[in-house]
Amino acid sequence: MSYRKNWIVITVVILGLAMFIPVAQAQRQDVEFIICGTSTSNVVHSTPELGITSFDGKYIVQSTHENKLFDNWTGHSVGIFKRLDSKAS
Prior knowledge:
Helix content: 10-25%
Strand order of the largest sheet: 1-2-3-4
Order of helices and strands: HEEEE
Oligomer: single chain
Strand content: over 45%
Shape: flat
């Protein structure tokens, strides 16, 4: 029984000390950037009930903020859109 009591005491002490750990406060920073990109899409299947389209896009980000945080980031997105009746996913 004392083994279990020791674990409870240790857990309470650790949780109690964890309350006093300083937490870093996040700062709000506004960012502004321009995204230039291109995309192609191909209709794979199209009926009134079902539509399937694939897409492939590439883009680059230019930061307008003085710290240039997002400057020259690039991206590539590939995916499939599905429309079943009037619901898209």
